[in-house]
Write a structure and sequence with these properties.
Order of helices and strands of chain A: HHHH
Helix content of chain B: 40-55%
Number of helices of chain A: 4
Low-confidence stretches of chain B: 1-63, 95-126, 321-339
Mean pLDDT of chain A: 85
Number of helices of chain B: 14
Largest interface: A-B, 12 and 18 residues
Number of strands of chain B: 9
Number of domains of chain B: 2
Distance between the termini of chain A: 23 Å
Low-confidence stretches of chain A: none
Distance between the termini of chain B: 38 Å
Order of helices and strands of chain B: HHHHHHHHEHEHEHEEEHEEEHH
Largest sheet of chain B: 7 strands, mixed
Oligomer: heterodimer
Largest sheet of chain A: none
Amino acid sequence: MNKRQEVNEFVCEKIRQRSGVQANDTTKLCDVGIASLDVAELLFDVELRFDVQIDPDDMEDIYTVADIVQTFVKVLEPTCYLRAVTSH
Amino acid sequence: MNSQSTNSELLKRGWFDNIGVKLQPLFDSQVHHVSKLAVSHLGFHRARSLTGILGRLQNRVVPQQTYRIVRRTIEACLNESELNAGRIARRVLSAKYDRHCEYLLVSRASDADLLKNLQEFRYSGPQFFRDYGEIVRDYIGCDAPIVLANAHFGPYQTAMVCLSKFAPPARDVWIVKRTPPSAEQLAGYARSAGEDNSVNVITVGDDPAMQAIRSLRRGSTVVFFFDTPPGWGAHDLLPVRFFDYPCLFSTGIAKVAALGRAVILPVFTHYDESGTPVLTLERPIDCTNVDDVDAHCKVVTQTLATHLEKWIRKHPAQWSMWPHLPTMWYTPTGENENE
């Protein structure tokens, strides 16, 4: 399992614990009752789990599970992220 | 009037009614005029309390919980029996006698040292500014962001001057406010912060919690009021003991500090006899390395509530937030008792 999948799985599990909703990549956080401080807490949980810290600028514009995953992939797998951005 | 028996005697003899007659002309005037009169008649402390109350009496709805908290406060501050405290509290909350109780509290507070001073730091005047810088350096380290948890009538600007000039490196200051500041207020903030520091304001509509966390992670200082109400940045409420009464406090400050990896500096401001604001710092609460946010919030929220209670007990006459308690603190069920 690569880091992207790991983060995705972890975030979806956290959302399930909080909201009882089975989330996926496209799940909007606000639709499952996660907003503002909850988003920050979710990011914090991922930071603790993967022992990284994200840039404060990356805490903006996070609306979906995919946004969170992408934010952490940038830190955890910078090479993969750069490759994905280039090919995109 | 600083003993239990004296207070009780005054109550029995209708002292409240008598003093009310004497003060009535003051209260019948406009607030500004009253303020001037009251200062000349009563001195700074009493005038401040009395005139402050004037603005909050109208159309107030007081639930049962407020009564209980006020009663507890009076019990603690005046050493009154529960029965007498209840009687005073009812009078306080009837609005008609609000000023009388406040007057009594002021007198009582100024007559005696009600509690031992448990505060860790107490600074006033120029020495404060130097010492503040040392505290920040010694306890926090230069790089840690700071949540300045401010209670009472805190002169924000003074706090910002301290942070800007005595806590290197230069750091931005963010103030969390309920309402947007006026242009005049903003200019005042900017002047206080100095050239190297910027002052910004976060208001309710700006997603305050997330903004505050981002600012902290960039190394800024964020200034909060202690009594951040629920639903304003943090929706979670935690049960705490407050005046030996179960209340729910917002976890806003504790959570924002933990997620922002910051240090909380509880700051209390009161006015001395000359009317000079005195800032008191409690020992910093390190939230830079929190593993369990929920457990952390429980401890820190209770710590802040305990600080608050201690300060109210020490300076009861300067605590003007009683009328707001029903909207800020809730019963453990989260429901207002009168609803």
